[in-house]
Every structure is written in C-alpha cells, then in structure tokens.
Amino acid sequence: MADETGGPYLQMACFCEKVLIEQDGVLSIIRVIDRIIVTASGLDSPQEMPVGQINFPVVIVLKAGFARGSHTLKLVPTSPSGKTLGETSVAVLFEGEDRGVNVILQVQLPAQEEGLYWFNVMVSDQLLTRIPFRLVYQRLAQGLLPGAR
Q1: Per-residue pLDDT for 35 more than 80?
Q2: d(CA 44, CA 8)
C-alpha cells in the first residue's frame, strides 16, 4: 500500500543551455550541462580566475504524490569554499497524484572561485536533492601556430 504522506517527488533537476516550452506545455531541455570552462588567453592572462557572473537556466520538475496546496520551492547554491550564495524562492501549487509543476529559474552565479558548487533543491524547507555544478578556469598558452615562423 502506498504511503499517503509522501511527496512531492523529484522527476528532474538539471542545468542546461536552453529550455523550450512547446505550445502544449511540454518542455524541451537543450544541452544539459554540469560544468562551464572559463578561458583566458595571452601572456598577460591572470593566474586566478577573474571575477564575473555566469547565467544559465535550471529546470526542476516535481510530481505531487500526496502533496497538496501551496509550498515554497527554494534553490540554495553553495560555493566551493562552503559559502551560501543566497537563495531563490518561488511558490508552487501541488494538486496531488501525478500532477506536478515545472519550474524554470535563471541562475546568476557569481563566478568568484573555481571548483564544485552545490545547489540544494528544497520544498517547504525539506531537501529533495543537490545538483553539482563545476566551474573550471583554464589559461590557454599563446604561442606560434604549427608551421608558423
């Protein structure tokens, strides 16, 4: 017998480059990502990653299960050094059973350090999942092309 207190349930939580919402409400998730490489080239490129901001969508799809009513969905990012970077909150409405919600949020990540970021996905202050995201800084060597003199 099913647990009549379970839910909401996570169907999907991912970062991507683009989200299309079709006329019938179906989502198309384009180019799922879990890392971004920031590059710098030239002899004067900095040793440390320059501070900046990176923007990309996150898609969170939940199914209600036995959850009913209005709840708060939170996305809480943590930097590689363990610093909480603020949170984004949205109200979601669960109608029960297989009904759910599709939430698309635009992440504006303050790129201040390279490494592994974690994004906690919470509903009504209960942790549903954590999504990892790696930011890599790569310095490209400036040199002669093969065959050039």
Answers
A1: yes
A2: 51
DSSP 39-60: EEESTT--SSPPPEEEEEEEEE
Q: pLDDT, tens digit, for every residue of 59-102?
A: 999 999 999 999 999 999 999 999 999 899 999 999 989 999 99
Q: Considering only CA atoms, which of 64, 12, 14 is closest in space to residue 34?
A: 14
Backbone angles phi, psi at 47, to 5 degrees: -65, -40
The pair phi, psi for residue 94, each rounded to 5°, is -105, 130
Question: What are the boundaries of each domain within the chain?
Answer: 9-140
Which CATH code is given to the segment(s) 9-140? Answer: 2.60.40.10
Enter the pTM of the model: 0.87
The alpha carbon of 28 is separated from its chain's Cα centroid by a whole number of angstroms, namely: 16
